[in-house]
Each structure stands twice: as C-alpha cells, then as structure tokens.
Specification:
Elements: H1 2-6, E1 9-11, H2 12-17, H3 19-24, E2 30-34, E3 37-42, H4 45-72, H5 81-87
Parallel strand pairs: 1-2
Antiparallel strand pairs: 2-3
Length: 91
C-alpha cells in the first residue's frame, strides 16, 4: 500500500525529463513535487472528465435543493420557473 502511494509522487525534474513517457503511461493521478512540496496533480483525461461530470451532477443537486428551499419559504420572493414563464404567458 505504501509503495503504491509513493508511486503517486513525481518530482518536477523527473517529469520534465520523461514528460511524454509519463503522459503516455499515465493510469492514475500523479502528484508533481518541487522541493518536497506538492505543486500540481496530473490525472488521466478520462479521470478528469469523470470528475467534471460528477461535479456538475453534484452542483445540479445542490442548486436544486437551494431552489426548492427558497420556493417553499413562505417569506421568500422566489417563484418556480414554471410559474415565472406562466405569468409571462409563455408555455
């Protein structure tokens, strides 16, 4: 387990020397280190896209909860978007 964790770390110097090879064989996130401090993380493109989709889905859920709370608050000035369009006569 520790060896697998250590494989995540890559010095910036080593990355510069072997950038193409590192990117071609990238299977998991790698933490780029400079002077024993983390500076950046590189991830496979598929992982990045999956993270982006998960973040969008989570944000949609959170915003939906916020909207529902505002609509259900009796002292709120917010209305549902369906009511907004209906008030304008748009179906």
């Amino acid at each position: 387990m520790i060896a697998q964790f250590e494989e995540m770390f890559l010095s910036l110097t080593e990355f510069r020397k072997n950038m193409s090879e590192t990117l071609d064989t990238l299977m998991q996130p790698r933490i780029l280190m400079s002077r024993d401090k983390p500076k950046a993380v590189i991830v496979p493109y598929e992982t990045f896209k999956a993270m982006e989709v998960a973040l969008d889905e989570h944000l949609d859920e959170v915003l939906g909860q916020v909207a529902a709370k505002r609509i259900n608050d009796p002292e709120s000035n917010y209305i549902a978007h369906e009511d907004f369009w209906s008030d304008l006569g748009v179906d």
